């Protein structure tokens, strides 16, 4: 099946890339993009993590859940060798994940990790109000969430799962084989495969022509570009200064995470030019927000009112207003309107307070000195871990799919 960039001339595509946040991305990358390059990547729309899929077929779809989980956990926690007597698919996947590529530079990845940590709660605001909410405007990208019942499971759990994943994989030296973060990546990879196989088996009206394979490789690359390029774009809007070395580190870190998740490494972007080109070409496949997108947006906003991290109702209502103000400050007006995010009075007030606070903190922490930088990394890490702990405490216990 061959896919075409059918939305390249659509109003929503042209507005985003000619006058919205997309224009800012193009300027940050310093490039112009030829739509003819679309075919370099379009095959990824119908490619998936076949190793992960086969593991799920040989474990979760054959064995009782607790037996499959125990088997996967055992080989997530311990090295796998060619001589182990385990299902061939498990052996292939774990041997691939244990094979550290020649291109991987642990110190460069750690530079990216330290940047993620030193941004503290700024990072969490951007992930929620810019990256996640902004991603809901890509109607086709979100279809797996709808078909796997993400709305019914609730935004609280999805936020907890996303936050738990992001925090653990973005710490220094976190991605060593058999580490806690490595085990979390294994579970996430197989969760993607399980969801994909469930959709293919049960969703009779899955639109392969327009939506590609469920959770396909190009959608995955676009998602992880959200954790790198778009993430850094959002942080710049909040006044965070980013060095060239930090930019390289963030891309390198997410390239390796993507590799561990079964995404073809040769297509994972290493710099802002590659990231913006891929996002531009991929977005030519994506229709603008639809009713499913609006429901996802509403669920994310309503999470402020339904979570129990804050005890009092007035606190939760204030939190909702603050997140809405961030949406309106960070995202294009057209996108906010399509997602039906209610506008608030003085939407720039709270963001400008954050920007001013960031400028002051960089001076106080003396970020240009090694000692000051490390202190800010340690402080930001504590902030992020505190938020994660709060979500874990106030989220229902995990259930299996």
TrEMBL record:
Task: Kindly give the InterPro entries that the UniProt entry links to this protein.
Answer: Lcp-like (IPR037473), MPAB/Lcp_cat_dom (IPR018713)
Its name, as the record gives it, is DUF2236 domain-containing protein
UniProt-recorded Gene Ontology molecular function terms: oxidoreductase activity
Which domain of life, per UniProt? Bacteria
**ER-bound oxygenase mpaB/mpaB'/Rubber oxygenase catalytic domain spans which residues?**
141-342
Tell me the leader sequence span.
none
Q: Identify the PANTHER family for this entry.
A: ER-BOUND OXYGENASE MPAB_MPAB'_RUBBER OXYGENASE CATALYTIC DOMAIN-CONTAINING PROTEIN, SECRETED PROTEIN-RELATED
Organism this protein belongs to: Chryseobacterium lacus
> Pfam families under this entry?
MPAB_Lcp_cat
């Amino acid at each position: 099946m061959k896919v075409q960039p059918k939305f390249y001339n659509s109003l929503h595509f042209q507005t985003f890339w000619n006058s919205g946040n997309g224009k800012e991305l193009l300027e940050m990358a310093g490039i112009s993009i030829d739509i003819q390059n679309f075919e370099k990547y379009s095959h990824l729309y119908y490619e998936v993590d076949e190793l992960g899929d086969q593991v799920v077929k040989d474990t979760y779809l054959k064995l009782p859940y607790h037996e499959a989980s125990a088997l996967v956990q055992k080989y997530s926690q311990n090295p796998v060798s060619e001589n182990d007597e385990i299902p061939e698919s498990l052996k292939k996947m774990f041997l691939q994940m244990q094979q550290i590529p020649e291109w991987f530079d642990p110190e460069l990845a750690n530079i990216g990790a330290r940047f993620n940590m030193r941004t503290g709660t700024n990072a969490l605001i951007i992930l929620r109000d810019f990256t996640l909410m902004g991603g809901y405007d890509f109607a086709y990208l979100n279809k797996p969430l709808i078909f796997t019942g993400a709305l019914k499971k609730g935004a609280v759990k999805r936020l907890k799962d996303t936050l738990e994943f992001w925090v653990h994989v973005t710490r220094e030296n976190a991605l060593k084989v058999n580490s806690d973060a490595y085990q979390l990546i294994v579970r996430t990879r197989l969760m993607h495969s399980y969801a994909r196989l469930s959709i293919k088996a049960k969703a009779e009206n899955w639109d392969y022509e327009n939506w590609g394979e469920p959770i396909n490789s190009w959608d995955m690359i676009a998602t992880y570009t959200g954790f790198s390029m778009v993430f850094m774009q959002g942080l710049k809007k909040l006044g965070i200064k980013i060095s060239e070395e930090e930019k390289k580190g963030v891309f390198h870190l997410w390239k390796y995470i993507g590799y561990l998740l079964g995404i073809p490494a040769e297509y994972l972007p290493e710099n802002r030019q590659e990231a913006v080109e891929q996002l531009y070409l991929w977005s030519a496949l994506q229709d603008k927000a639809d009713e499913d997108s609006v429901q996802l947006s509403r669920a994310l906003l309503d999470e402020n009112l339904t979570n129990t991290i804050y005890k009092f109702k007035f606190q939760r209502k204030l939190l909702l207003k603050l997140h809405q103000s961030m949406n309106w400050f960070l995202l294009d007006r057209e996108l906010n309107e399509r997602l039906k995010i209610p506008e608030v009075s003085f939407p720039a007030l709270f963001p400008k307070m954050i920007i001013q606070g960031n400028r002051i903190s960089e001076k106080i922490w003396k970020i240009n000195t090694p000692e000051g930088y490390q202190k800010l990394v340690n402080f930001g890490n504590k902030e992020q871990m505190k938020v994660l702990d709060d979500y874990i405490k106030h989220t229902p216990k995990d259930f299996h799919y």
